[in-house]
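Go through this fold for my students:
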Amino acid sequence: MKSVLLVDDSKFMRTILRKIINGKDYFILSEASNGFEAVEQYVFFRPDVVIMDITMPNMNGIEALKSILENDSKANVIMCSALGQEYLINEALELGAKGFIVKPNFDDIFDTLQSIVPSR
């Protein structure tokens, strides 16, 4: 199974994603509610993939992405955002994010995960 660090300031959104992901060839290794926690937990746990919200307090997803990639240029980070934030998704992809998902529609989450970190 592949490990996932789930990062979103919304506990509700983390709960939804945890229920979708856990047990389907992936497992939630840890959760973070802001970019600072995401960077700390990435360095500590080294998960196979990070699913990270873009808009968060304290340190947003773009800043956290930069920090994670400075620490590990091969990090697999999937950005997660709401509709209407295409410019932020494009910025994240240019910085090195491996993919994105648009919330709250998670129908393609496993296709995205499989394309970046295949479970088998």
Q: What stands out?
A: Helices lie at 11-21, 35-45, 61-71, 86-95, 109-116. Residues 11-21 form the longest helix (11 residues). The beta strands are 2-7, 26-32, 49-53, 77-82, 99-103.
